[in-house]
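Lab manual, section 2.4: Encoding a predicted structure.

Procedure: take the sequence of the chain (384 residues), apply the prediction step described in section 2.3, and record the output as structure tokens. A sample record is shown.
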Amino acid sequence: MLSWIAPLVVFGLVVLVHELGHFLAARIVGIYAPRFSIGFGPAIWRRRIGETEYILAWLPLGGYVRMATRDDDTLAAIEGGGEEANPSDKRWDPNAMKPFGPKPIPPDRWFDAKPLWAKIFTLGAGVTMNIVLAIVVLSGLYAGYGRPYVPAVIDSVVVDRPAQRAGLQRGDSIVAVNGATVRSWADVVDSISASPGRTIQLDLVRRGAERVRLTMTPESAQDADPITGEPVQVGRIGAGPQNRTLRERVGPVDALAAGWNSTWVMTGLVFKVVGGLVTGRVSVNQLGGPIAIASSSVQAARGGLETLFRLVAFISVNLAVLNLLPIPILDGGQMLVVIAESIKGRPFSLRARERIARVGIVAIGLLFVLVMFNDLKRLLGFAS
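Recorded output:
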């Protein structure tokens, strides 16, 4: 049961929020949006409320909001919602606009009729909502569970390494590095890693509240960048922390600040991965698809709600960044098209738009095949 529920929670929530962003933005600027679908393919459930039909479809790998455009029929067919009602259909409404009735769509309610700012606002709203979802989820986790950290308390010291030679002892609590206060082991590691071969000062507290200042020079060691795998030089002193995690209770304002900061750190990491893929510094073999996400969702659910919702935030940020890529049919590609049309002074021809859409479909199709291939390699144990 968990193997079904966890991926649906992750996929469903992230996609729902993304499409809800587009839908709400369209409603705000007055664009006619006759269909809101979660999933692709045949509908499991559908219901029309007002002028919009809401759908749950069989293939839960995305969703779409159908908006009135001059290419409405073509784009709707691509997205899976091109079917039209007719007088013999029980969904037919003689008082409704197309596709549910005979009434024409007012020209001022077409996407194409809106000013550039309204188009960008509508296309970018999905990405914005995914970022907002990540901030809300992470802020809620910090408020509910506290801020986790490994305390800067020494547990082990390696013989004949800088820490041992300088006099660092088990049980010492590091409180400052080069005069800058530290509160966690991560803070200590960041400061030391950035100082290979350079002398640093550690302020620490020993049992009995004795304050001690030690001077040492971190050794230069070669490590691998966690994203690109490229070698980097870092500082090491030969000391390790206690194996325990504490939680700092935070108030609503601090929780929101922590959620905001964590979201943008995640976003920066995803952009770094995308940049590495473009430059070849990150291998495409690292990409994962629906199977990898489903597997991660199940593992996260087994780790508890906190772990599961951290995955939701991470996937939401990934979806936001992915949709900003300048690939036709993705939000970023569509924004480039409307900007180009605005500069040109007139819209592209239907043939040109169809060609642009085909390029996007091919690009997304190739990406989907690649990530599925990677997923299957991992599933069958062939991943390197």
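Check your result against the sample. The mean pLDDT is 84.
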